[in-house]
Amino acid sequence: MFVIIGAVIVLASVIGGYSIHGNLSLLFQPIELIIIGGAAVGSFIIQSPSKVLGHVIKNAFRVLYAKGTSKAEFLEILGLLNDIFTKMRKEGLIAIEGDIENPEQSAIFGKYPSIFKNHHALSFICDNLKVIISTNVSPHELDDVMEFELETHHKEAMIPAHSITKIADALPALGIVAAVLGIVITMGKINEPPDVLGASIGAALIGTFLGILLSYGFVGPVATHLEHIAEEDMVSFQVIKIALVSFVGGAAPQIAVEFARRVIPSGDKPGFTELEEAIR
Description:
Blueprint: H1 2-19, H2 30-47, H3 50-60, H4 71-91, H5 97-101, H6 107-110, H7 119-134, H8 139-187, H9 194-248, H10 253-261, H11 272-279
Helix pairs in contact: 2-8, 3-8, 4-9, 4-10, 4-11, 7-9, 8-9, 9-10
């Protein structure tokens, strides 16, 4: 919603400011858009392997609906981990085997439905719990393994932002290409009256204007938004990692989830009492 509002503000500010003294009809240059947009799409296809292309297209529209992890969802993650740790402490490590093999059928996981919306986090929890119950892994070894996995996941999550940033960086230059082509057309009209030449030169300069506007007003901000989304997504994984490492290191279930609570950003961090009441 805010992305759309921001885009409307950009257009209203630029076009509204220009319209005070300018002729709006001169801004309508569909050929310039075809040149710049087509060249941008083509260069994007050239720079992107098929897997990257699909990944970018799939995730680019997240700017319209991604909301990040809320306080309630963090509480569910912490509550789930507390229940799992408590069961492991009381009944033994192997007691959770059925839960992590089929989380959809698990009574513990069923208490926290929001975890099923985040398939990566669900897999991260289950996979690392399988390591814990099947091997005598030390806390620092588990921490290293999870950190390597998170680095890989983060690099993959940043691919859409990096790819779109490169397109944003190229748009001003593509706008110059469109402008140069417009000047070439203008030179072919050198014998025309000044008013015709002026209109033709103005139309050519619209290419530079569009390239810069699209880059810094729309495409670049979208790339930055996707980068923020990727960073926010990593928080839930860090929360899970801290809790698992703390528990393997010997911390009690409630202490392990309290340590994990500390890494949640302040805007979504549940209070100590809120967490205590949620897991009670």
